[in-house]
Specification:
This protein is mostly helical. The chain is 79% helix and 0% strand. The chain is globular. Catalyzes an amino-pyrimidine hydrolysis reaction at the C5' of the pyrimidine moiety of thiamine compounds, a reaction that is part of a thiamine salvage pathway.
């Protein structure tokens, strides 16, 4: 089941224009292996540590977004998203510990090139562009993970029983998580209606597609790490 908000409005238009890049992101081999429970644990552990480092910068980007807003409803919505990310940080660390990764290990992990490329791109868009450009760079992550979670939960090929990644999959199909995504999508649509004239479509589409491509590279990072470990062992 694909949430109807994913296909409609300005977000749906950018998602469609991303074309094969979007498909490569939401149906990446890393994602498919998560659903089947066949992903190498080393790939997932590397992803988990880098995802925590990513979330730190993602929170900074939402803080920057808030600084560019002035309308009370928009401020409330963006602040709720930032609070959700900050609240997720200790939960993410606890989840890492379940996979044998200590908080010290996570804190001491150097940022992968893919993490640097993605997070600094989003922050650069935020510092050089307006509020709509920044939110355009954020949305592939915000709504893309929800789409991935729902797609996996609806896919007959997904195995939840005995799947070590079942909790991760179910988290991104959780109703409370989806409610937060829906709120972000509504804020994005409001900003688009206010600021996205036809003359901006190409530049905004480029930002969205670039962020999508960097998301796919983030998945690939995990697989590449596992491959390197296998070759060196």
């Amino acid at each position: 089941m694909l949430h109807p908000l994913f296909k409609t409005g300005f977000y749906g238009r950018l998602r469609q224009q991303a074309g094969t890049q979007w498909h490569d992101y939401v149906r990446h081999n890393f994602v498919q292996q998560l659903g089947q429970g066949t992903l190498p644990p080393a790939a997932f552990r590397h992803y988990l540590t880098q995802d925590y480092l990513f979330l730190l910068h993602f929170a900074r980007a939402w803080g920057l977004l808030i600084s560019k807003l002035s309308e009370p409803a928009a401020l409330r919505s963006a602040t709720a998203s930032l609070n959700a990310i900050v609240s997720e940080l200790p939960l993410h660390l606890a989840y890492c510990q379940q996979w044998g990764i200590s908080e010290e290990a996570v804190a001491g992990e150097p940022e992968a090139t893919e993490t640097i490329n993605y997070t600094r791109y989003v922050l650069d868009v935020g510092h050089t562009g307006d509020v709509l450009e920044l939110m355009t760079a954020l949305m592939p992550c915000v709504a893309g993970y929800a789409e991935i979670g729902l797609r996996l939960l609806d896919d007959p090929a997904t195995r939840l029983e005995g799947n070590p990644y079942a909790a991760w999959i179910e988290n991104y199909g959780d109703e409370s998580y989806l409610a937060g995504v829906g709120s972000s999508l509504l804020l994005f649509e409001t900003l688009a209606q206010q600021r996205a004239g036809e003359q901006r479509i190409n530049s905004l589409s480029e930002i969205f597609t670039t962020a999508t491509r960097l998301e796919a590279a983030f998945w690939q990072m995990g697989l590449n790490h596992a491959d390197c470990l296998r070759v060196s062992s």
